[in-house]
Each structure stands twice: as C-alpha cells, then as structure tokens.
Amino acid sequence: xxxxxxxxxxxxxxDCVIFGFDTNALKVLLIRRGAEPMKGSLAIPGDLVxxxxxxxxxxxxxxxxxxxxxxxxxxxxxxxxRVDRHPDGRVIxxxxxxxxxxxxxxxxxxxxxxxxxxxxxxxxxxxELGFDHNEILQACFGQLKLKVQSxxxxxxxxxxxxxxxxxxxxxxxxxxxxxxxxxxRKKILSLDILTPLNEKQxxxxxxxxxxxxxxxxxxxxxxxVGGLNFDAKKNS
Amino acid sequence: xxxxxxxxxxxxxxDCVIFGFDTNALKVLLIRRGAEPMKGSLAIPGDLVxxxxxxxxxxxxxxxxxxxxxxxxxxxxxxxxRVDRHPDGRVIxxxxxxxxxxxxxxxxxxxxxxxxxxxxxxxxxxxELGFDHNEILQACFGQLKLKVQSxxxxxxxxxxxxxxxxxxxxxxxxxxxxxxxxxxRKKILSLDILTPLNEKQxxxxxxxxxxxxxxxxxxxxxxxVGGLNFDAKKNS
DNA sequence: TCAAAAGTGTTCAACGTACACCCATGT
DNA sequence: ACATGGGTGTACGTTGAACACTTTTGA
Lengths: 236, 236
Description:
The structure is a homodimer. By secondary structure, the first copy, chain A, is an alpha+beta fold. Chain A has two domains: 10-148, Nucleoside Triphosphate Pyrophosphohydrolase (Alpha-Beta Complex), CATH 3.90.79.10; 153-221, Orthogonal Bundle (Arc Repressor Mutant, subunit A), CATH 1.10.10. In chain A, 28% of the residues lie in helices and 25% in strands. Chain A has seven helices and nine strands. In chain A, the strands form two sheets. In chain A, strands 1, 2, 3, 4, 5, 6 and 7 form a seven-stranded mixed beta sheet that branches. A two-stranded antiparallel sheet of chain A has the order 8-9. At the A-B interface, strand 5 of A face strand 5 of B. The structure holds a DNA duplex.
C-alpha cells in the first residue's frame, strides 16, 4: 500500500459552540442541518477545513456564516477523533467555543447562512444533537466554566456598558450556582478592572443601577494573580 | 473541483511528550529522526494516524514504539494546524503528554524503535526541535504544570513507594519553584490520599525517610474539593 | 563526631463566606 | 404607597505563608 493510499485520505473540521448572553439567559447557537449528512438534525455550527486554511481561519469562516461577525473571542477546547464519528469518511473535528457580545449584532438577524437559533444552554444540553455534538457542547461548556474563573472573559458576552447585577447573573448562569451579591461585588471591584461610569440605567421600575465598563488597559497591565474565585459552598 | 479533491487530502498525526522522573530530574523523551522529513533533527515522538485508528490508539502505538509500555497516564493538550507546519502536505497534529513511572521500565532500554534519549525538561526547552515541536513541548509542559495543581498526577511519575521529599522535589521540578517543606507535607498529608508504609529508605547516609504509597481508592472515593495549591509567592 | 537529609508547630495575614437592612425609582 | 431590584459592612473561619531546630542514620 502506498503512503498516499493509507494517509492523506482524511479530513478535519472545526466545530464552534457560540455562546451568547441575551439579557437574562445564556444561550448557544445551534443550526438545523439543511444538507446531508445528518440532514434535519440539530448541530453545532462547523465546517470542513480546506487544505489551505488554518484552523482559526476555518473557525472565523464558520462564525461569519453563523452570526456574521469577525474577531470574536474564541478558544480551542478539544479534538474529537472517533473513527466512526462522521458518516462520510474519517473526519476528525477540532472543537472551539466563541463568545458573542450582544452589543455587536442583532438577534434574529437574517445573516445566518441557514436555519439557526439560539437555545438556552440548559435546554441545549438536553437536546439530541447530530454527530458527537452533545459531547462537544458539554466539553465546551465545561471549559467556559473553568475559564471564567481564571480570566475575565465574562465581559465578552456583555454589552459595553453593564450593571454589576447583569455581570453577576451571567456568572451565575455559567457557573450554574447562586452567588452572594455583596461578595460578588467586593470581589469584582477589588480586581480593579471595571470603570464606573457617570451613568445609570434608565426606564427600570426600581432604583437604577450604575453602569460600568470593562477596562482592558488595566487588565492587561496587571499581573494576573488570583483569578476569580467566588463563594463555593463547601458542603455540596 | 470535486468534494474529494478539496478535502480528504490531509493527514493528522499525534505527537506525545513523554515525561519521566529519573531519581532527581524531570525529563522528556526526544528522538533523533532517522528518516525524512526532518531527518537528523530532534523531535517529540509521534506518528501519522491511520484512517482506521482512533487518536488514543495512535498515541498508544507511539508510546509502545518509544518506551515499550502501554496504559500510561495520558492527556490531550492541544491541536496544532498551521498550514505549512509539515513539509509533506497538510498534516495537523494532536499533541498529548504521557507520564511514565520509573518503576515500570528500565532507562537506556533497547526497546526504542529508533535513537531516543531522555533530556532534562529545562534543557529540552532550549533545544531546537523539528517541525513546531518547540511550541508543542511548551504547551504540554504548561498543561502538566496546571494539571499537577488540581489533580494528584504526580504519582504517575514516581515509583510505587516513595518518600515525601521525592514527591516534593518532583513538584518543585514541575512547578519550577521551591516549596516549603513543612507546608508541603501538611498539605499533601491533609489530602489523605497517601498510605504510610512500615518501611524506610535504606542505604542512605542520613536519617532514612518513611516510605508512602498513593492510595487510589481513597482518591477516587473523595469528592474533589480544593486541589493542590501550594505556596505561591504573591510578589513575583 | 560530622555531614546530610528527615521530621515537626506556631503565628500571622489574606481570603472566602455568611448574613439583613435601607435606598431610589416607576407604577 | 407599594413593589422591585440596587446598594452597602462586619464578623468569623479556613487557608496559605513564613520560619528554625532536633533527630536519625552512614561514613
């Protein structure tokens, strides 16, 4: 058997779990496949990567097709390579997640390349997805959970100006547990990466909250010390 | 262009950084390549994965060729996919690391499929390796550092019976910093995953140390709480 | 008796955690 | 006036960090 017969017969794809935060829910973008293989089933956006394309370029392309934005925060998570994971041949896939900021795009935009919808993460985790995408979704959500505790990536999901309660809710949704309001604020503010604005929420039927924005300068300047560790219940 | 012309023309490999602990040094196994491409250059053991082989099977095969052992602790780290990273075509590689326990094999064994040697990690990080293997080595060592602080994988590198000083030295080598003896012992023993043996070091020119062994039962039974966080200097 | 590593406790600072009430706004 | 979420401080327990001397063995 020639070298080329045994190898160079496989393909690889990137799949990208796109997380979005929609005012009060953490969501993922899932597509309903309009073509074979797995036509009709729900799946994570992804595509085969061409021979002349880097992995990141592949992900960028998928993101453009899915939400029509470039330059999102993204991170490689894991590579899945079960021999029979793809019906068309040997296709391994490199899983990424990306975070989209609601400030940057309009939900229900017509920009999707095919039928696509946002699903609450908790719901998506229960759905049956095509290929090995359930596993991929789980792995990516798991990574997001870890990452959010060691780096301030939450801001990638929020609008430029946000309240501390919004931020806390986001963390609660990602970590899947309640956080103490006072402790959360103490912790976040002590990191000194938020700039308080002279501006407040408007049109809410209660005391309006102060708006903050993330200070990327300060963040990059600071030596990363502790990470963000919130009150984890000991007895659980 | 046909579908098959554009895709299914790539290959993928696994590369596996094999860490070993040799009495008082943390080492990696590097091979000197005896065949093209990159003949003559130092590299991390690895090989193309065939179409009918899972990623883990590929790694197992590489490990067998390199150190002649199966069933090592291994972990996937990252996938490298630069378009031009391999001279023979589009080959992406999935990087793993594995930990070998000196109790299980003899160093300088004749079992290596080709010229292979153990290099101290610190030294290996300075060498020029083939392909993008410098990057891979760095990524794997970085992962090992992280992992060793959240799971007791250090034991995979030690003989079955070991002293606390050996364990501490190993941690110091992996974390690349000194640890306080008393704090280290307090911490490790408080985890309650070591069984003290009624046995001591022999033939050492000083007070002989008590031997311990890792208690996998206890480890699996315990709910993983804190992780292993040692004294990290604040001001560094 | 000397050299060399083993072994052992206490004190202080930092951090995580639990917890309850008043405030500002819209309806 | 009432409902709703915004905003604030303190006390306690746990954990991390710094630090020095005695013990046991072989040479």
